[in-house]
Specification:
This protein has 262 residues and is mainly alpha-helical. The protein has 8 helices and 2 strands; from the N terminus they run αααααβααβα. α1 runs parallel beside α7, α2 packs antiparallel against α3 and α5 runs antiparallel to α6. The longest helix is centred in the middle third of the chain and has 32 residues.
């Protein structure tokens, strides 16, 4: 692809994502769903404002990288809070499993960040801007990998257990998993193969992001917040009751254990 054409497409997709992000955030407020998905809405607002601020600068410029470097840790925190929020939404009726999910998220993140930081610490000082950018990508790769594993486990729960959830929660979980995992794969590709494919990766991620944002706008509705659905099908009523009973037992056990620890 011609370089100038790629730049035009990238900038156009960038603008499209800014517009879709702003519309989606407004949509959450319009549907009065912002409180239920507050960390995701906060992420939308933050990332939209940052994208609008940096759109005028070239991605390789010092100003762009400085803004990105100083704001990306906030994005990492929001990633974690969104996954915690998804866990809370899915296991709303299972407080014990919800607590276990929180422990798993924080524990895996602490390990991932510690390992990433330890591997980079000896070479962190006296780095050039480009090298600092690469180090940030490596740290993010560790955080993203931990969160991807947890998102896959959450999706596994949804597919294996007959938990009735609101249609919006199911759609949100699936779309966010696709959105987040595509970003993770993009960062992994840049880390492994080098920055020479960064523009191609950027174009791909911008496209996936726009599709996900559009899907959120189309499929999230006020009615979907109360309409229940179950991803797992082909279960008899007795099997479903048995699985839900086992889930309730596990939840009660975890609740008792958490009270003893507390």
């Amino acid at each position: 692809m011609n370089g100038s054409v790629a730049v035009i497409i990238e900038r156009s997709l960038w603008l499209l994502n800014i517009a879709l992000g702003a519309f989606l955030a407004a949509r959450f407020f319009q549907l009065k769903l912002a409180r239920n998905y507050r960390f995701f809405v906060l992420y939308l607002l933050f990332i939209t404002v940052r994208s609008a601020m940096t759109w005028a600068f070239e991605p390789g410029s010092v100003i762009y990288r400085t803004i990105w470097r100083n704001t990306q840790p906030i994005v990492w925190v929001l990633y974690v809070l969104i996954v915690l929020e998804i866990c809370s939404l899915i296991f709303k009726e299972y407080r014990g499993i919800q607590l276990l999910g929180r422990w798993a998220i924080w524990g895996s993140l602490i390990i991932a960040v510690a390992l990433s930081s330890a591997s980079l610490m000896p070479t962190w000082r006296n780095l050039r801007t480009q090298e600092v950018f690469q180090r940030y990508l490596m740290i993010e790769r560790g955080i993203d990998f931990a969160l991807v594993i947890l998102l896959l486990l959450i999706l596994g729960f949804l597919l294996s257990l007959p938990i009735p959830l609101s249609r919006n929660v199911v759609i949100h979980c699936i779309l966010y998993s696709a959105f987040f995992m595509s970003n993770t794969m993009g960062i992994l590709l840049v880390n492994v193969t080098g920055t020479h494919i960064s523009q191609l990766v950027s174009l791909s991620l911008q496209g996936v992001s726009a599709l996900c944002l559009l899907a959120w706008l189309i499929f999230l509705t006020r009615e979907g917040e109360v309409k229940k659905m179950v991803l797992r099908r082909q279960l008899t009523s007795s099997d479903e009751e048995q699985l839900l009973g086992q889930l309730a037992t596990i939840n009660a056990t975890l609740l008792r254990a958490s009270k003893k620890i507390g």
